[in-house]
Design brief:
Blueprint lengths: L7 E3 L4 H10 L3 E4 L5 H6 L7 E4 L9 E3 L5 E4 L4 H6 L1 H6 L1 H8 L4 H6 L2 H5 L12 H6 L28 H6 L4 E6 L2 E6 L19 E7 L6 E7 L10 E10 L2 E10 L6 E2 L13 H5 L16 H22 L1
Parallel strand pairs: 1-3, 2-3
Antiparallel strand pairs: 4-5, 5-8, 6-7, 6-8, 9-10, 10-11, 11-12
The structure holds flavin-adenine dinucleotide and iron/sulfur cluster.
């Protein structure tokens, strides 16, 4: 870890002020809980001259039930607040379970929904101190020219490892974004690129203000993750499932993953699972072409693929039986 470099901190009180402050300062960066960003600053990976601290922006800190049955979650809501919220715990257990498993209790006290959805991708050649990275000639994602994971390739395969994204995606989440060109919204699943070096489709100066999820009524949901240290660790693989059961069949199922690809993956081609009696092997058979970890962590891709499949199998069975 390096000493903290000099930087200026600006504390806006509204979204409008935050966006304006970003535009007014060269090399600015939004900071919420800081539990992801400050680690990268201490490692010398990023050195923003100005931090726009959005922790005082009150308008992004509420969780509001919507008239149509959905819920609007402010980007500044902390993970502890999210996990403890009555409606979330009752109607959206996958979200509460995912929030509860992020990092450790002290992180979750300040870590936010927006920061979790926008956190940087991870790789064993990247999440290292400056002296470690320089001795390796850096890498494609940061200051270098070669990807040590796939040296003949021209892109970065660092993994997206946020726990919340898949849990929100199974409830058809949309994100609300404010920026220099106004306000826009898009499905959360479309906010990511399949590129570990540029995984967010946010324009310069854009800020996430809220996530809106559809009604969880009638869905049975859950989140499961595997990590090395149970008390504090990113997922080797994480899976969120929401399903609806009708007799021995599924009437609907949504499955999403984290920790495996450079973006949170919404599993495609699940329609076939609704045809006959629920077949968990048919579900896991969909994974190999879509869940594609690379050797970017200490744990080999084959192992992470198996972990993802086993988590999926166990969680899907449990949710189906409980329905
Ligand atoms: C030891 C350790 C273990 C961890 N384990 C996990 C884990 O198991 N699972 C997990 O998901 N995460 C983990 N994390 C990462 C981090 O703690 C969480 O992802 C947390 O939710 C990040 O939120 P934050 O508010 O602290 O983000 P910050 O650090 O403030 O910001 C993260 C990034 O998002 C950007 N950002 C923040 N808010 C916004 C916004 N509203 N709009 C646009 N951009 C924004 C920032 O500019 C920055 O690039 C871990 C971190 C540590 C240090
Ligand atoms: S996947 Fe390659 S380019 Fe990306 S962080 Fe790892 S080594 Fe660097």
């Amino acid at each position: 870890m390096e000493y903290l470099p000099d930087f200026k901190v600006v504390r806006p009180a509204t979204v409008q002020q935050a966006v304006a402050a970003y535009a007014a300062h060269a090399d600015a960066r939004y900071i919420a809980g800081g539990t992801d960003l400050m680690v990268n600053v201490r490692r010398g990976i990023v050195a923003p001259q100005t931090l726009i601290d959005i922790g005082g922006v009150a308008e992004i800190t509420a969780i509001d039930a919507q008239q149509n049955g959905g819920v609007r979650i402010g980007a500044g809501v902390t993970l502890n607040e999210l996990a403890a919220h009555g409606l979330i715990a009752k109607e959206y257990p996958a979200i509460a379970e995912a929030a509860r498993q992020v990092a450790a209790p002290t992180h979750r006290q300040v870590a936010t929904v927006g920061g979790n959805l926008c956190l940087d991708t991870r790789c064993l050649y990247y999440n290292q101190s400056e002296w470690w990275r320089v001795s390796n000639n850096y890498c494609l994602k940061n200051k270098g020219e070669v990807c040590h994971v796939a040296p003949s390739g021209s892109r970065c395969f660092a993994a997206f490892s946020g726990d919340l994204a898949p849990a929100l995606m199974v409830f058809d989440a949309e994100v609300e974004i404010s920026g220099p060109n106004g306000v826009r919204s898009l499905p959360l699943s479309e906010m990511y690129n399949d590129d570990g070096a540029a995984h967010l489709k946010l324009e310069k100066g854009e800020m996430l203000t809220a996530v809106i999820i559809k009604s969880g009524d009638g869905w049975r949901s859950g989140y499961a993750k595997a990590r090395v240290r149970g008390s504090i660790d990113f997922p080797l693989a994480g899976v969120a499932i929401a399903l609806k059961r009708q007799g021995d069949r599924l009437s609907d199922i949504r499955v999403a993953f984290t920790g495996t690809n450079s973006y949170p993956v919404m599993l495609r081609k699940t329609e076939g699972l609704l045809q006959g009696p629920f077949d968990v092997d048919a579900l896991t058979a969909l994974l190999p072409k879509q869940i594609t970890p690379m050797p970017s962590t200490f744990y080999p891709p084959g192992y992470r693929r198996k972990v993802a499949a086993n988590l999926t199998r166990a969680l899907a069975r449990r949710l189906f039986e409980e329905s």
